[in-house]
Specification:
Blueprint (H helix, E strand, L loop, with lengths): L1 E5 L3 H13 L3 E5 L2 H6 L5 E4 L8 H11 L4 E5 L4 H9 L4 E4 L4 H20 L6 E4 L2 E4 L4 E4 L2 E2 L4 H11 L6 E2 H8 L10 H13 L5 E4 L3 E4 L4
Parallel strand pairs: 1-2, 1-3, 3-4, 4-5
Antiparallel strand pairs: 6-7, 7-8, 8-9, 10-12, 11-12
């Protein structure tokens, strides 16, 4: 796997690159947001937020617009709001510095495994329409009223799972087990964060109804 490491601290970048290469990964290191946005040929991004030319959150936002590759934020910003914002703008995971190489590699493997599973899932209904919502699972594209909806890899997996049975209430546990896995290390509110983000991108919170104490259902707004 080719990893794009975006970090402006040369000592941290050097030691982390060595550790990742030892774990079997190929690493390309860049130190600015502009270089990250210009990079190509990578399968996963490790992104520090404290960059010299632009804020890492904006880099994450723009990267998500141009790639479906998993993005893991690695940052010293440890506040809950920082983690929530990072996930909302497109990151697939958020790791707070300092961290062990073992933990980071486990996170990389977990995110990669979830992405691979999502890409390899074969469903009976490759294309699905729910009112004005069109989901194409083969190309992993979503359109609403004919306009493309830019979703992260995890947001697409979530919407696709909910859409398998429109109108049915799916429990939080069922959703977490299907879309995430038992090795998820992220915040406990990660499901709610992703639900909120998908609602926002669909332009109407009524697309996904919360069923108190149970879970969520996808339905066409009235």
């Amino acid at each position: 796997m080719q990893i794009l490491l975006v970090d402006d601290d040369p000592s941290i970048a050097a030691s982390l690159s060595d550790a990742l290469r030892y774990a079997g990964y190929d690493v390309t290191h860049v130190s600015t947001g502009a270089a990250a946005l210009a990079a190509t040929d990578y399968q996963l991004v490790l992104l520090d937020l404290g960059l010299p030319d632009m804020d890492g959150t904006e880099v994450c936002r723009q990267l998500r617009q141009q790639t479906t590759a998993p993005i893991i934020i690695v940052s010293a910003r440890d506040g809950e709001i920082d983690r929530v914002v990072g996930l909302e703008i497109g990151a697939d995971d958020y790791v707070v510095k300092p961290f062990s190489t073992r933990e980071l590699v486990a996170r990389i493997r977990a995110v990669s495994r979830r992405t691979d599973q999502a890409n390899n899932v074969v469903t009976p209904e490759t294309e699905q329409r729910i009112g004005a919502l069109h989901i194409d699972r083969r190309t992993r594209r979503v359109n609403l009223d004919g306009e493309a909806v830019a979703l992260t890899a995890k947001e697409f997996d979530l919407l696709s799972f909910l859409a398998q049975d429109p109108g049915a209430c799916l429990t939080r546990q069922d959703i977490l087990e299907a879309v995430w896995d038992t090795n998820w290390y992220g915040p406990t509110k990660t499901l709610d964060v992703h639900i909120a983000s998908v609602r926002k991108k669909l332009g109407n919170a009524a697309w996904i109804e919360a069923v108190r104490g149970i879970g969520f259902r996808l339905q066409e707004p009235e």
